[in-house]
Amino acid sequence: MDIRTLGWLNNRIKIIDQTQLPVKCKYISISNLKGVWQAIKTMQVRGAPALGAAAAFGVYLGVRKSRAKKFAHFIRELDTVIKYLNSSRPTARNLFWGLEKMRELALKNKHKKIPEIKKLLLKQAFSILEDDRARCRKIGYHGNKLIKNNDTVLTICNAGILATIDYGTALGALYSAKQAGKKFKVYACETRPMLQGARLTTWELNKKGIDVTLICDSMAAVLMKKGKIDKVITGADRIALNGDTANKIGTYSLAVLCRYHKIPFYVAAPISTFDFKLKSGRQIPIEHRKREEVTELFFKRPISGKAIKVFNPVFDVTPHYLITAFITDKGTIKPPYRKNIKKLMAKEKSG
Ligand code: MRU
């Protein structure tokens, strides 16, 4: 079965409602801006690269029916739409990257007629989608080189097909290794509190015929101590210029465990996840979500009392010095990160 995270059909965004997985693989169609905002906020669509594409199509839906005749009026409307989508989730760089690409496109074509600009915006959203498809394949190609026959790889959250347009980042490396005929095993951390590992990663790896074992997040250390893990590969939501990386909560703990147990720790991400404007991870905004995600969601009855205080940051920042290498669409980057990420930025600018 083909997994199609996000597409465009009859002027609607078509997504898999990821909150229903793995019980139901249900596709939903979104026809307006508010619907896109809600789908992002409630994580019906999630994962950094998928958010970039959803936001881009959201911009088009937001201005599609604009009656503006002059560009000055149109850009004001576009900026209101962008500001609204900007407020959906704060951490993944790709979301803002997608929105910026849409705005740049509009400005570049400001001398054209408004209907023409609208068409170009839709085309731009499609190219963001295709861009991610191509970049993930390249990440897969470079990631495969790090996977040896009979390896056991640990991952967290979902950095796979469901988090991107197709193929995935961390899981893309695994798909590519499988295509190359390598044999390997995967452990997936369940990823409390929203259980992306348990619900999504095991689902898609299983569909793709990859040997996956689910563990509770707290079991990673024991596996490492027993010598059962050869490497950890995770995705990323935002990477600062010095290599500090925000990813799903629990990623930092894995990186610390890897250092202690002398296990390589890799981060796979496309260029659209790098935030070249941020000097370090201290500047990355971390999303905090509602208490019910910890106290109740996905359970038939509350797992703690209503009065209990909850701390629910959904991302953490792994310091660059704990990261063995980044697997990007432009190749693998090793330390020193500031210098090598700057090189990556230059490569991207020169095409
Ligand atoms: O809260 P989520 O599910 O959107 O968080 C997603 C992650 O943390 C992923 O690991 C990250 O976006 C990389 S996806 C290729």
Topology of this structure?
Elements: E1 6-9, E2 12-16, E3 27-30, H1 33-41, H2 48-63, H3 71-86, H4 93-108, H5 114-144, E4 151-155, H6 170-179, E5 184-189, H7 196-207, E6 212-215, H8 220-225, E7 231-234, E8 238-240, E9 245-248, H9 251-261, E10 265-268, E11 274-275, H10 292-295, E12 315-318, E13 325-328, E14 331-333, H11 337-349
Characteristics of this structure?
single chain; alpha/beta; Four Helix Bundle (Hemerythrin (Met), subunit A); Rossmann fold; four-stranded mixed β-sheet; binds 5-S-methyl-1-O-phosphono-5-thio-D-ribulose
In terms of DSSP E residues, the strand content is: 15-25%
Question: What is the end-to-end distance?
Answer: 34 Å
Q: CATH fold name of the largest domain, please?
A: Rossmann fold
Compressed to H and E, one letter per element, the order equals EEEHHHHHEHEHEHEEEHEEHEEEH
Shape: globular
Provide the CATH architecture of the largest domain.
3-Layer(aba) Sandwich
What kind of assembly state do the chains in view correspond to? single chain
Assign the CATH class of the largest domain. Answer: Alpha Beta
What value does the average pLDDT take? 97
- Ligand names: 5-S-methyl-1-O-phosphono-5-thio-D-ribulose
For the biggest sheet, the summary is:
7 strands, mixed
Percent of residues in helices comes to: 40-55%
Rg, please? 20 Å
Can you tell me the number of structural domains?
A: 2
The helix count comes to 11
